[in-house]
Every structure is written in structure tokens, then in C-alpha cells.
Predict the structure.
Amino acid sequence: QVQLQESGPGLVKPSQTLSLTCTVSGGSITTSYYAWSWIRQPPGKGLEWMGVIAYDGSTYYSPSLKSRISIYRDTSKNQFSLQLSSVTPEDTAVYYCASDAEGSWGQGTQVTVSS
């Protein structure tokens, strides 16, 4: 079963770009028909699916974030990454990466947007 680990800054200033990386072990992000998602949970709120990158590099984003989000990958490092631009305090959340095929999630990383 794959294991996932999120990494990145825990504090981002408003208007800046949030960048997180998910490192995958125990399997390849290019495995056919696998897809890899980013999900977040703001404090006191439910889970929000943000977007996904598939095994072939294709991406799909939440309509509510489409203008600000980018998900890309580095197959040489078996990593996929999230960028969210023009952040506001409403983007404060615990961010998770996940394997759609196996239902495996990273432990999550807290990101706070504050000046």
C-alpha cells in the first residue's frame, strides 16, 4: 500500500502562493489508472476536494478553485505538488494528499494564512 507525506511551509502571507508537495512511497504515481488528490479541511468545517492529477498527468480542479489552483508532478521524484495563488485567511486549513485508488491519505499538514 502506498504511503503519502505532505511537506511545505506552515505559514503563508495573504496574497502569496501556497505550495505543498506530496511524496509517495510504496508505489509509482504513474501507475496506470491511479489518481492523486489534494483535499483540505478548514477549521470547524468539512473536507473540501481541491483537485486531482491522474497517472497520465491530466488534471481536474474544483470549479471554486480553478482560477487559483495548479497541480503538477515530478515523476523522477515520485512527487506531486499543489500551488494555490492569491491566498486569503479563508485558505487556512489542514491540507491532505491522497491516493484515490487505494484510499490512502497523508497525515496532513497545517497551513495558516496570516500576515
The mean pLDDT is 97. The two ends are 39 Å apart (CA to CA). The chain has no helices and eleven strands. The first strand starts at residue 3 and ends at 7.
